[in-house]
Amino acid sequence: MAGTSLLALLDDIASVLDDVAMMTKMAAKKTAGVLGDDLALNAEQVSGVRAERELPVVWAVAKGSFRNKLILVPAAIAISALVPWLITPLLMLGGAYLCFEGAEKLAHKFLPHQEEGEHHAAPIPDDLVAFEQQKVKGAIRTDFILSAEIIVIALGTVQGASLALQLSVVAGIALLMTIGVYGLVGLIVKLDDIGLHLLQKPDGSALRRAVGQGLLVTAPRLMHLLALVGTIAMFMVGGGILVHGLPIVHHLIDSAAAAVATLPTAGGVLAAVTPTLLNAVAGVVAGLLLVAVMTLVGRLAPAKG
Description:
Layout: H1 2-45, H2 54-82, H3 87-110, H4 125-157, H5 163-189, H6 191-200, H7 206-244, H8 247-261, H9 267-304
């Protein structure tokens, strides 16, 4: 009897593990797009620090990301079980923040302040430390919002499953996401150092030197590309969250996609990209409105004081 019970227990455990693996795979597929945005945003967020501080900064952000998951995973499961209606408003708040942050980047790029020209002198060490801390805090805030979206998407794939299965799948996705994203971010920010190391090896072959030179040329261009992609991702992800929380706007975008699908030749391609483009446009509009409102509030506040 004891042997039979043990075999039955092992069979149950195997079935549960199989269910966890299958649902984790499904959740990973659904969150893949947001993971790409997360990678671009975080690589862009930690760029610009001193070369010797790049990996420590990535590690600091990664630790902050783990702390975010320790808050978000149990909170998401609790909210889903107790107050599921609260998930959408919280996500929309995070989406609005992403749009605002992206619009601020655009405003600083295309509408520079006059006093910016006075701050081009070489920064002192205290300024570099403050800059690094600001980068880390900004990256952790952005990670919190994107992690919340990924966790909610993963949670949606296991709705109706047991609490233990939900926790296993969502926690597994959160762990894989953090290790994968920040492992790649660490590799990306050190590409130029890897290239320099390959070039400086005295016994390096012609192929090794070519690879090293290629990495040195590619690394800064890749970081500029990731900075651009990261800003676009803010609007795409943030706008997508806002649109999905507003049924009327979501319906209009779906209607637009259905309309372009009827076009000859390129209809299918246009139908596939139209929702993403319109989500990004909605994100830009929302972000610029929020920047305008916050700027107005900032100017009025001192006057009232």
